[in-house]
Amino acid sequence: MARRDAGTPFLLLLSLLLLLFPGGTLGCASVAVGSPVVPLGSAVTASCTIQSELCHGLEQGKVRISWMLDSKPVAGSQRQGLGGTEVSNLTLPRFNRTQARLWCCVEWNGTKQRVGMAEIRAGYPPAKPLNLSCVLSLGDYGLTCQWEQGAESHLPTSVMLKCAGSRAQEVTGCTPQGGQSRCTVPRRLLQLYREMELWVSVTNALGTAESEHLRIDPMDVAKLDPPTLQSIQSIPFQTDCVALAWDVAQGTEHMELQCELRYRAPEDSDCPRSGCHQVTGIIGRAGAAQRCGFLFGTQYHFQMRCRRSSASAYWSAWSPGKSYTTHEKAPTGKLDTWWGAQPARAGGQLEVQLRWKAPRRHEANGRVVGYRVTLSPRRRGRDPPTVCNTTHTHCNFSVPAGTRRVYLSVYNAAGESAATEVILLERKGQPLARLWALPRDNSSLRVHWEAPPAPVAAYVLEWQRVTSEPGHCSACWQMEHDGAATEALIQYGIEPFQRYNISLYPLYKDAVGMPIHTTAYSQQKSPSHAPKLHLKRISKSEAELCWEPLPVEMQNGFITSYTIFWANSIADVASATVNPSLSSFVIQGLKPSTLYKVHIMASTVAGGTNGTILTLVTTVLDDTEIQFLFLTLGLVFILLILLLICFQKNERMKEQLWPSVPDPANSSLGKWVPAALPQEPLLVPAAREPGPAAISTVTVLEGAPGKPPGKEPPALPAAPPALPRPYVRQEGRG
Predict the structure, then answer these.
(1) For 337-423, which CATH class?
(2) Residues 6+ positions from 149 with CB-CB distance below 8 Å
(3) pLDDT in tens, 42-75
(4) What is the reported pTM?
(5) Class of domain 533-618
(6) Which residues contact 463 (CB under 8 A, 6 or more apart)?
(7) Comparing C-alpha atoms, which of 430, 413, 416, 420 is closest to residue 354?
(8) From the CB of residue 35, how many other CB atoms can be counted at a distance below 10 Å?
């Protein structure tokens, strides 16, 4: 029995191998499909035919045919065909896979065996290529064309660039490699200086698509090498013009070329932007050209490019840059000035703080060497006295009292400008009614104001960054020459999260108006830190807190409020909002002898920042209650002291409370001795037996009336009066 069970798997394996050999099951089945390549989403039909006599192991019994799409079972219909064959037909209404295998299976010994297969692919017809363009290289005269591929077809596709001459048949110019969308047509297939037709053809099993046909002369799309700038020189008689000379690329001397020149100063933006000047319409074969309108004493960067004089020709690359600096001449124009003046401590002098703006680039005419301030304008043959000669744009100097005019000039290596007259007007004019500032972006502020009733010649706008340490920006000002203006833009020296003091001065015809001030931020955020709380005083129901205002550098904006939060151990949280101008706050309604945790939050319009936690404990009693308690104890103590003093001073009260007992040793009885006393032996007290002493009679002597008891009058030299002799009887033992 065991041997029979062991031989069963071997027989199954042997039967399976027979099915797989030619003449087995794979040789007895055939699968046919309507089309191996179909449009994606369309129907697919297939049939499977089984010839039982050719299938070993399937000669006996009924054949059952089934289908599988990859590994998924699909249902088909089965019928008996001609010649004893079994036929199964299958229809897939929507084939949504780009590639799949369709298997025909038969059941053998209870398992499905694959006996036939057909591979099906699905996709789309090829899309039309777009934007075909070509460039001719003059190095090897190969025509390189590129295009944009259409949508993915999901099918194997062949792409070819085809070309045809005016008298030549259509040929394949080139075939892109590796799925690229560009290829190069060799020189042997090109017809230079003649029109050719080029297009891209894309083919797959579902169809063919072609791009738009491009008709060009290959020489019209030739990309030339850039020219070379040889020299740049200033023209002596026309000082704002320069002459340029260049050489065209080798091999293009015989061509009609059109060239362009571009140049920029170092301060300008890059050439693809608006900062680059461009000159067009230059004839390349000329080799030289002139251009005017350059600034004096300015370095420029020049580049040049050329192309064939054809509408469809490509520009060459820009030539390597060449720099040139134009020659200088004396500065021109007037300088914007601003001043401050005050009497000097030493009499007879006036201290002047003069500031000015550097000349604009088109007025400087070169590199500025320095500035000169004189007390009178310069005349021929005579140099006026100089009070300041500096390379900066500000100067402090002293002039005689009563001086109302000074003269400022700028000079470079080529000469000195005409003097700018500075009139030192008094600051007594009418101020403006209102001034405010708003941020335009993170690095600029837009300032607005209301114009005064009197006509204004110009405005001077000043701004200073507010810091904890004193500082001054000498360049943070600007002049608005339009007296009718009501707004200005500050763009210099503005940083986010910094406070600026802004002042505006109206300039009248004969005076300078008093300034008006405001403060502003270009951008705000929450404070960097919150103030540190300090406990000023505390009681059983109140706690007074104080804090130091934040340094302006840490505020990062206008402080809108302070918020105080406090909570006890059972999480009873309370808060109060405090005006930003205050620096102390009293928390009321606290519980006696309770621990509280307190912190402060400083807020701007952009958010708030919490401070560190302060822990405090309320007292059991208030200060007034403690004072009252100490006062009461003090009064009681004082009262006790007074009573003791009174007791010491008042003898009657003392006698009532502590009566005086007379000393028997000082009584008259103690001093009285009888005339004859029997001689008795002296007894030692220690030897006598203890026993009670019996007193038979006690005589009390009354003192004189009016004398306080317990006090004896002082002894007098006279003889004492006779006193009665009391008798005290002592009885012995027994």
Answers:
(1) mainly beta
(2) 127, 129, 181
(3) 999 999 998 877 776 665 667 888 999 998 999 9
(4) 0.59
(5) mainly beta
(6) 445, 473, 476, 477, 490, 493, 494, 500, 501, 502, 503
(7) 420
(8) 14
